[in-house]
C-alpha cells in the first residue's frame, strides 16, 4: 500500500532478515571481515555475538550467499536448551541420512562425508544460530567434532552466532578447552545515532525512495527510542510510514514518530486485531495520488510537516488489520 505512495519497489523496513539490505556500518563491516577471516584461516571456531535484533542473522545470510558456491554449508537455526542427539541435527543440517541410526553410525557417516568433501577440495562449514541456548555438554560435543582433521587441514569449521550469554558461557572454566579453539570473535553493539541515520537512508535509497524522507529530527527520535537496534528501527520506521500514508504526508517528521510512540502502535503488529472502524475504512479506501516526493525527483527538500490530527491507537489498529488482509 504505502510502497506505491512513496515510490518504493518494496517495503524498506521489513522485519525479515534480508542480506540484500545489509548496511555495513563500521562495526558490521568489521564483523563480516572477522567471519571471512575465520573461513579463510580454516578456523575451528568463529564466534559472533550481539543483542537480539542487532543484525547477526543478516550478516550470516550474506556470508552464506557469498560462500555458497565455494564451500559446503550446513545450518542449525532452531537451537534450544534441551537439544539432544547433536549428531542427528548436524547430519540433518548437511542433508545426510540420520533416521534409524545409532550414535556410532551417525558419527562414522559424518566422518566419511567430511573425507569425501575434503578429497573434492570443498571446505565444510557448520553455522549454528542462537548458540547461547547450547549447554556445556553440547558445546563439548561440538569441540570433539572439530577434532576431525585430514593431516594439517581442518576439515570442519564451525561458526557460532548468539546473544551475549554465549560469550559468558564460553568464558566458564569448564569450557576452557573450547575457548582455546576460538580463533576469531566479534561482539556486535547497537548502532550509534549517526549510523542509525545512515541505516535509515540506506534502506530508503535501496528501494528507490528519497533518503531524506525521514527528517533528521525524526531519525533522532527513532535512534533514541530504538536504542540503535536495527530490528526496532525497522519496526518504528515501518509503523511511521503507515501513519504518514494515512495522513497523506510527504515527509516523516518528529511529530509522526512521536505519535507512533504515544499510541504504542509500533507493537500492534503482535497484538490483537479488531474489525475496521468506519473512519479507518475511509482512510484506507480514499484514492491517493503518488506522493509529490516521488512524482518529481528534482524537488527541493520538503518543508517540515504541518501539525495534523493525531492518528489514534484505534485508527492504527484498524490500519494494521486492513494491511494484514490485503498483504499478498
Task: Describe what this molecule looks like in 3D.
- With 328 residues, this protein is α/β, with parallel strands linked by helices.
- It is built from 15 helices and 7 strands.
- The strands form 2 sheets. A 5-stranded parallel beta sheet has the order 2-3-6-1-7, with helices on both faces. A two-stranded antiparallel sheet has the order 4-5.
- Strand 4 and strand 5 (153-154) form a beta hairpin.
- Helix 9 crosses helix 10 (216-226), helix 10 (216-226) packs parallel to helix 12 (254-263) and helix 11 packs across helix 12.
- Mean pLDDT is 81; it is low at 268-286, 292-317 and 319-328.
Helix/strand layout:
Layout: H1 2-6, H2 26-40, E1 45-50, H3 56-67, E2 71-76, H4 86-93, H5 103-119, E3 123-128, H6 136-145, E4 149-150, E5 153-154, E6 156-162, H7 164-170, H8 176-179, E7 182-188, H9 193-206, H10 216-226, H11 230-246, H12 254-263, H13 278-285, H14 292-295, H15 313-326
Parallel strand pairs: 1-6, 1-7, 2-3, 3-6
Antiparallel strand pairs: 4-5
Report the strand count: 7
Helix and strand sequence: HHEHEHHEHEEEHHEHHHHHHH
Oligomer: single chain
The share of residues in helices is 40-55%
Could you give the order of strands across the largest sheet? 2-3-6-1-7
Amino acid at each position: 500500500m504505502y510502497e506505491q505512495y512513496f515510490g518504493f519497489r518494496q517495503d524498506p523496513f521489513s522485519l525479515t532478515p534480508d542480506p540484500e539490505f545489509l548496511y555495513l556500518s563500521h562495526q558490521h563491516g568489521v564483523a563480516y571481515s572477522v567471519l571471512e577471516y575465520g573461513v579463510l584461516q580454516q578456523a575451528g571456531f568463529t564466534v559472533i555475538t550481539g543483542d537480539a535484533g542487532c543484525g547477526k542473522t543478516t550478516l550470516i545470510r550474506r556470508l552464506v550467499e557469498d560462500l555458497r558456491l565455494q564451500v559446503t554449508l550446513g545450518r542449525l537455526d532452531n537451537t534450544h536448551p534441551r537439544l539432544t542427539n547433536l549428531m542427528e541435527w548436524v547430519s540433518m543440517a548437511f542433508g545426510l541420512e540420520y533416521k534409524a541410526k545409532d550414535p556410532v553410525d551417525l558419527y562414522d557417516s559424518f566422518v566419511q562425508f567430511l573425507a569425501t568433501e575434503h578429497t573434492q577440495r570443498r571446505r565444510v562449514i557448520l553455522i549454528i544460530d542462537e548458540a547461547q541456548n547450547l549447554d556445556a555438554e553440547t558445546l563439548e560435543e561440538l569441540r570433539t567434532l572439530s577434532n576431525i582433521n585430514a593431516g594439517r587441514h581442518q576439515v570442519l569449521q564451525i561458526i557460532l552466532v548468539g546473544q551475549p550469554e554465549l560469550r559468558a558461557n564460553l568464558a566458564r572454566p569448564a569450557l576452557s578447552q573450547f575457548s582455546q579453539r576460538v580463533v576469531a570473535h566479534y561482539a556486535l553493539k547497537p548502532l550509534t545515532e549517526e549510523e542509525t541515520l545512515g541505516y535509515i537512508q540506506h534502506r530508503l535509497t535501496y528501494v528507490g525512495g528519497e533518503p531524506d524522507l525521514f527528517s533528521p529530527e525524526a531519525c533522532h527520535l527513532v535512534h533514541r527510542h530504538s536504542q540503535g537496534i536495527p530490528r526496532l528501527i525497522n519496526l518504528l520506521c515501518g509503523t511511521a510510514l503507515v501513519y504518514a500514508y494515512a495522513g497523506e504526508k510527504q515527509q516523516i517528521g518528529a511529530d509522526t514518530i512521536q505519535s507512533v510512540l504515544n499510541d504504542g502502535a509500533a507493537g500492534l503488529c503482535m497484538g490483537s486485531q479488531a474489525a475496521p472502524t468506519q473512519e479507518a475504512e475511509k482512510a484506507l479506501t480514499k484514492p491517493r495520488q503518488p506522493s509529490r516526493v516521488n512524482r518529481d525527483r528534482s524537488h527541493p527538500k520538503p518543508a517540515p510537516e504541518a501539525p495534523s490530527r493525531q492518528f489514534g491507537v484505534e485508527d492504527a489498529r484498524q490500519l494494521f488489520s486492513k494491511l494484514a488482509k490485503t498483504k499478498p
